[in-house]
């Protein structure tokens, strides 16, 4: 049920759980080792605050009906819910978040993060229609509902990226949710959309620090997804372009010169080239290994640094620019003007994945 639910959210369709009846009870909060072949009766479940092998499934069922309902409403063909209804849905989500158990067991990090993410993503989804409408308006003074919606969306989006980043920074790092989910991409693109289109000084003051704080982290998340399962390179193009567009907008507001804005534009392509270079390095039949760092740029331009995950680096491999020899002959390379940011905003997989 959980897999079908998340697939429906990612595809933008209603979950079948919203229209079908089911009577599956929640799994008991017990450990797998508590089950024995000669058992005649099931043991009593442990309290929710005790983490077990089935704690995630046991707690996730509690919010399943709410999430199925919100998924159906968000993807309905009818008009989006009113602001009052949206506030009620937000309150329901916050109550469900507050009721999540707080485990101290180190093994519970991924389970507790996933329980939080699958609820928190709906804070973005239910506020998204009004957020996109607000950002498309040219009002210098948005009304109270628009300000509330935008700030709530930014807060939820930043929290989602922070939760995913915490898993990467854990010891040992956990890449499971990073490779299986894309809610952080939705969050990062929405932050960029708000920051780029904002015409209100108040919203800009809120969106800019959030955008600057999450840009590197969101790129890192997509980088890990591209390098480990080998999928999602096209998503990296979209986000890299969006972040550069926002950076250029901020540079214009700060009165920066054309040279610096050109450097920010070039960074969008440099980041993608660095990622693709590292992917190709893994496919090298000569077995030269994986560079620990790829740097693009030269004197007078804004360079880009991209680090390879430590678990994918082979010791003793030197870093040089040999992998980029001959690329200067490519059309549009090094700012020839024919490879613009608009070229990043096409649909479809670059790598077929």
From TrEMBL:
GO terms for cellular component: nucleus. InterPro entries: Fungal_TF_Env_Response. Keywords: DNA-binding, Metal-binding, Nucleus, Transcription, Transcription regulation, Zinc. One of its GO terms (molecular function) is metal ion binding. The keyword Zinc applies. CDD domains: fungal_TF_MHR (cd12148). PANTHER family: HEME-RESPONSIVE ZINC FINGER TRANSCRIPTION FACTOR HAP1 (PTHR31944), ZN(II)2CYS6 TRANSCRIPTION FACTO (EUROFUNG) (PTHR31944:SF130). This is Transcription factor domain-containing protein.
